[in-house]
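Subject: for your reference before the review

Hello V.,

The reviewers asked for a structural picture of the protein, and I figured it would be easier to keep everything in one thread rather than splitting it across files. Below is the amino acid sequence we used in the manuscript, unchanged from the supplementary table.
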Amino acid sequence: MTETGTSLDVRRVNDTAAVIGVRGELTGATEAPLMDAYARAADAMTRKVVLDFSGLEYMNSTGIGLLVTLLVRAQRQRQRLMAFGLSDHYRQILSLTRLDEAIGVVDTEEEALAAS
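And here is what came back from the structure prediction:
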């Protein structure tokens, strides 16, 4: 847990995919823990990093910026960034910012893992 009450849990699903569970807030205060979680999730074998937002309580514009940073890092590593568990509000924000065109947004973890 960070001082903001956010937790970021990394779970390896298989040799090529990992899930980062986001619980709490995604703001500037969570930058270092988020980048650490991504580093733990994205080893050389990883082809897909899935963000589980089902426990997301709040994300501000800095949090959106952190998603862009993760996207750039994933693209450099030739990894696919996926997301599920977003509320309608945050789905709309990703749509308005067009991040949903680069980050695969789906309803469930199973869909995220099955996506190519």
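For the response letter, the relevant points are probably these. The chain has a mean pLDDT of 95. The chain has four helices and five strands.

Happy to draft the paragraph if you're swamped.

O.
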